[in-house]
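User: Predict the structure for this protein chain, please.
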Amino acid sequence: MYCENILLKDWVVENPTTNPFTNCRNVTQLGGSDVLWAEFQYRYKNEEIYSPDDFVAAVERCFIQNEYKYTKMLASMGIIYNPLNNYLVNKEGSEVKTLNLSKGKTGTETVTPNLTTTSTPHVTTTTTETPTLKIKETQTPDITETKTFTPSTEDTVVETPTVKTKTTETPRVEKTITTTPADYTDSTSKTTFDNTQDLKAVQSVSRVYDAQHPETTTEVPTSGTNETTNEVVSGNTRTVTSHTGDDETETVTTGTNEKVTEYLSGNTQTIKSQTGSDTVTKTGTESTQYNTTVSDTGTDTLSFNARKDSGYMYRNPQDVVEDERKIANFSLIDVIMIDVEAVTLISVY
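Assistant: Here is the predicted structure, written as structure tokens:
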């Protein structure tokens, strides 16, 4: 049966006890059927219903189709709101970068010099010095110097010894000396005389030293120790040197030396001249041939160790204000009204 389109306010008059939102899925959490129905009538009462007979079913089907969207939007609105949380970035933990790269170079680079350098010196330097300066110096010595030395200094040295030293020696060593003389003979010759006036007979004494008749001296210390003690009694030795008078040296200079320098004529002139030039000539070519490849092998790995980011990320303050205004202006009822209107009413252009 064909059903003619009618305005929403007329449908409400014909169905005064019917609320199309009553049996919609999760309608209580989304604001309640009475609130949604009253708002829908207020906004679209003068718009036509696309299919009056299917109006209630279309409203219920809209909630079924958008259940996930409405649920997530509703959950986001239940979060405790803090504008700065949208830009909060806290960083904890660590980042570990593992480099396992190696660089390899293959191929060859060849430099082929084929140059010939020729230097041809043609510079000649000529130095000419022309001395024309004449100088005449005349020195007339006329100085007489007389020195007279008069010694009148007398030095007197007086030494006053006042140091007294007492030396005490205590001999305490006792010893026994035994000498055993060798056998000897004593003879006087009556026939031999000395060469003196007395003509005395010569007496000779002979002593035999041999293995059988040795002369030995035996020294046997018995007891005791010699002791020597030096004792400073008093005083110090003092030396006094005194000077009297002054030595005098008198130097008398008379006359003057006279030196006369006379420039007669001319100046010394030095002239340097160069002729020719040095020439350096290069012939041939120098070429470099590149045939190398540089490549990286291995891995460059970035790993996170208990990484957690926190803190505030940078954002232009004006952009932050604009974003926060958009969030504050959001209304879930507006979304639901737009979705239900799109599937139940005829759009007016």
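Residues 148 and 250 are 5 Å apart (CA to CA).
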